[in-house]
Design goal:
Radius of gyration: 22 Å
Helix content: 55-70%
CATH architecture of the largest domain: 3-Layer(aba) Sandwich
Number of helices: 17
Order of helices and strands: EEHEHEHEHEHEHHEHEHEHHHHHHHH
Number of strands: 10
Number of domains: 2
Amino acid sequence: MAIINFGGVDEKVVTREEFTLEKARAVLKDETIAVIGYGVQGPGQSLNLRDNGFKVIVGQRKGKTYDKAVADGWVPGETLFEIEEACKRGTIIQFLVSDAAQIQVWPVVKKYLTPGKALYFSHGFGITYNDRTGIVPPKDVDVIMVAPKGSGTSLRRLFVQGKGVNSSYAVYQDATGRALERTLALGIGVGSGYLFETDFKREVYSDLTGERGTLMGAIQGILSAQYEVLREHGHSPSEAFNETVEELTQSLMPLFAENGMDWMYANCSTTAQRGALDWMGPFHDATKPVFEKLYNRVASGEEAQISIDANSRPDYRAGLEAELKALRESELWRTGATVRSLRPEK
């Protein structure tokens, strides 16, 4: 385990060079990894593990998602099973159904958590908020986590490209004395770029804040606000979208992802430099109280309860589609669809 300095703070980090794929295979050579759920993280993690040479099976209820697993090469009765059968067969149970579904499926999973098995999560939600979820593992199993810092789609796509998504890792309960090595082996197996240490609470607090903040909620709010201001002042949809979204995602984000924000500022026009440096302060001051409020709601469990209540409703999917339809059919994103279609292919 290496100690690497991040912005002046030393952190424990595990790299592929230190914990090699060969070592990971050796650690898990006698394990059967049962991936429960084939929705968001399940496909990417299971396919990456399979391609990396681990013994993997998938547990999924019959339906469209089950059919998707078959299309991806999982064989019914050999590597694809109903959830209960997969839990029975697995020595490591990767619990990758949605947070709300975990509450429903937990009695089945718990039934097959016999001594020495490992219960694996990619999110700290179920354990951290167990007073709300009811997920309390038995004391004689390992409880571990690898949380890729990206979607399952990105995890798989980057893996196929020979790259990786960075992941956090944590051990909540070490019943066998092997919990840490199991965790690190799985982290390397699913295709992590590097692994950094956390715990279940810190993971879910940062994750829920990020999803509601700069990763998804805040970015849509900021984009729509700027787009609306430009449109209200007479700018065309094409101009407003290009200045709000297209230049950000297609030009600037790749630059500061590769080289940092200071480099991007240094390599744009002097007018843009001055404006960005002058206005980052007001935007920081305006939004920090919102982020503080958001974090406190995450820490109190309010955001978790909202998710549990909303996602457990029988009409959740219909309500979700209505909300997404409204977003999709807004002028902003209808304009975006047209702009994307006009991007040069070469």
